[in-house]
Amino acid sequence: MCCSKKYSGTFENIVLAILLVVTVALFSLPIIFYYISDIFVSISSTMILDSTNNSNISDIYNETFPEINCSTIPVQWSKVNASLNCYEYAGSICEAFLTQWSECAAMREGSSVHVGVTEEKQMKHESTLKTLNGFIGSPIFKSCAKVALPFLCQYMFPLSDCSTGTSYSATRDDCIIISEGVCADVWDLGLKFDYDLPNCDELPKANALSTNLSTSNESITNNITCRDDFVKTNVICEPRCDRFEQSSHTETQIMIGSEVTAASIALLLSIVTIILSIKDHKMMFKYPSILILFQVIDIIILASIIIITAAGRDYLYCSSVSLLETLDNPTLFCKYGGALFHYSLINLVLWWFCNVAIFFHKILFPFQANRFERLGRNKYILATVIVVSMLVPLPAVIVGLTVKKVQYNLNRFPPQMCATSSEMWFYSNILPTDLFLGAGIFMLIIALWSIRKKSKIYKSTQLSTAEKKIILIFTSVSVFSLFSLGYVSSVIARVPAFEAALTQYFECEAFGHDPEKCSRSTFEKMYSPYMSAVAYFLIGLVSLTILNFVIKWQKMRTGGRTIVRNVSKVLLIKTNETSV
User: Fold this and answer.
1) HSE-up of 300 (CA within 13 Å, CB side)?
2) Where are the transmembrane segments (predicted)?
């Protein structure tokens, strides 16, 4: 019998250890998955980009740089006598042009072509030129390519005469003629996609005596048909902010309807909880029950943003008809609504974590917890918890509002809420949520295991009705947070690939809709249109468990019996009166 109990205790300890190890491993997965997927996505995106652009890049540049002489070279240059570093040109795209240019600039014939940028920067510029092939390589803009590509080679690879220390670079004159003339539309589109195009004002004036670059804006084919969810600006199609959808229209409507329904249920339950809590303020407004009310407030904020968004999505999120311009200039509601959403999400997990920590302390250290309560230290603990929980999310929110590179912006089409860049969102939301949630569940497992051991010793559950309700709240928040953490982690891991595919699609549609060429399949299936709706229904589940905590079911049952008895008496009296 003794050995049986000993083996039983050993087995239970092994099970506990396994549970704790699994918990740590489970909450390590989002971090590991993020870093691994980031590497694979970068490699795959590069391979896709290279395969797409290399298919016709050589043909276009060969057509652009035929055998030419100095009298027909289509650009000017600026000669500057200055000491500079020389690096041998290691690329291939601009090799023909740079060789011809070096001869026309009276440099030594037959010598290697040297430029004023390092090999690392050369490779970066080569990649940029390959990407720009999507714009300039279009047959519609063939006239633009004839002058833009030589100019870009000049700008990105300024020639260097190593013996004299002379630099030959692109000029302001050519830059203005190209950017405001023959390539104006392509130039504007390239700037919207953040390509490395020069600022004309920063370039030197030409000091060559002549130029063969035509200053006329050659006519470009204007017969372009855009999709219904794109708008025509000059001769370019851009996605409409109020119409573009990353999933099919049916799926989008189901997703929006589900999200609004779930948010409405969560909001209604939360409002009822607040009303009942005010009525029972003596119990709900004291430590630690008030932490549960703070969670309710966060849920009200999250649900309200979803409902307000549904009521005026286009007006609230679209600063322009063009989606590309909107992405460059997000609305105030987008930025501050996204900041409030972000803050409330982290707060929700923080309140939960603090409540679990208090529960853990009460179960494992009951004498110390009772002593703190007798000495009145709980009010200081509550004040510390409130201050820390209110301050912890602030740095990330402030960075998202002030730093343009990671600012709150649209992350789904049609818009639902705004978020920071994927990398910033990982470090400011997913990572802290993962750590707090993992630590909380770790403590919860130990606390519940301790309760189980005590119940076996004292032959009782050791839990009051209120504690059972709190455990139910802990469980519902854990389920919601785990689901959201897994879903958002998988989404964040795919963001680079999604953005690359979406940019490629926008570039394709920019020159007119071609169903055979421009495919939506590369980005349509990257997000599940229903997963976020499930997450909002789980928020409703959290609201329901909190409402269950507030409601006094015993009083309701007693009140219900009283009402039934009173109604029965009234009916009996009326029946007797009728019979008389």
Assistant:
1) 15
2) 14-36, 260-278, 290-311, 340-360, 380-404, 424-449, 470-493, 530-551
| Residue found by looking up tokens 């958002």 in the block | 488
Show the tokens assigned to 27.
């909450």
Angle at which helix 332-364 crosses helix 289-311, to 10 degrees, equals: 160
| CA separation for the pair 315, 61 (Å, rounded) | 44
Look at the alpha carbons of 180, 186, 190, 192 in this order and tell me if their dihedral is positive or negative: positive
Alpha carbons 44 and 67: distance in angstroms, whole number: 37
Instruction: Give mean pLDDT, residues 427-438.
Output: 90
Please write the tens of the pLDDT for every residue from 185-237: 777 777 777 777 888 888 887 654 434 444 333 444 445 788 888 988 766 78
Count CB atoms within 10 A of the CB of residue 521.
8
Which helix (H) or strand (E) segment is 536 a member of? helix 531-550
Cβ-count burial 178-198 (b if 16+ within 10 Å, e if not): bbebbbbbbbbbbebbeeebb
CB atoms within 10 A of CB 72: 10
Query: C-alpha 83: how far from its chain's center?
Result: 46
Q: Are 455 and 461 a contacting pair, CB within 8 Å?
A: yes
Q: CB of 115 within 8 A of CB of 160?
A: yes
Q: Judging by beta carbons within 10 Å of its beta carbon (0-12, 13-18, 19+), is residue 298 exposed, middle or buried?
A: buried
Overall pTM > 0.85: no
Three-state SS for 38-105 is HHHHHHHHHHHHHHHHHCCHHHHHHHHCCCCCCCCCCCCCEEEECCCCCEECCCCCCHHHHHHHHHHC
Contact yes or no for 330/418 (Cβ under 8 A): yes
